[in-house]
Amino acid sequence: MILPIYLYGHPVLRQEAEDIEPDYPNLPKLIADMYETMYHSEGVGLAAPQIGLPISVIVIDGTVLAENFPECKDLKFALINPVLDILEDSDPVSRDEGCLSLPGLSEPVKRYEHVRLNWLDENFEEHEQEFTGFAARIIQHEYDHLLGTVYTDRVSPIRKQMIRTKLNNIAKGKVKCDYRTKAAPK
């Protein structure tokens, strides 16, 4: 089932997500719905807060980017209760980012190129892996959602001032999308 994407300004996007247990109700369906919603919205990642659930669940499928970013070739999985370590072994790199919760907007964001991630898969089996390049960027972006952070929190104060009107319009639901959305309550 395709779920609405919660837009910038909705309080759930500012909540810190809670870890879940293996008995979380209907988890396989939730993960399937998150993938379906992400694909329908043409995204490469989706965190549960973006569909109104302040829980620590993310789906990622960066495989469509593999031609330009080979590190995304096998980047498809569900992450439950992830823990991210930034490996600061190089200078951060600035690239434009967009977000399904901030449609029509993209801004340069500095992120580290190397991360280590620990997570549980949909069977609650534990994994640990290091990621680099654009794969690391996608993971950091989605992980931020679990912390109540959106990528515009990481842009320079000058850029944030320049996009303030766009952010306010998104928060008011004054945005056109090809996917279902849910604006902040008035």
How would you explain this protein's 3D organization?
With 186 residues, the chain is an alpha+beta fold. The chain contains four helices and nine strands; from the N terminus they run βαβββββββαααβ. It has helices at 27-40, 133-146, 157-162, 164-171; strands at 5-6, 45-47, 57-61, 76-86, 93-98, 106-111, 114-120, 126-132, 181-182. The protein has a five-stranded antiparallel sheet with strand order 2-3-4-7-8. Strand 7 and strand 8 form a beta hairpin. The chain is globular and about 45 Å long. The relative contact order is 0.22. The model has no long low-confidence stretch (mean pLDDT 96).
Features:
single chain; 186 residues; alpha+beta; 5-stranded antiparallel sheet; 4 helices; 9 strands; 23% helix; 26% strand; globular
Strand arrangement in the largest pleated sheet: 2-3-4-7-8
- Given the helix and strand composition, which structural class is it? alpha+beta
Largest sheet: 5 strands, antiparallel
Number of strands: 9
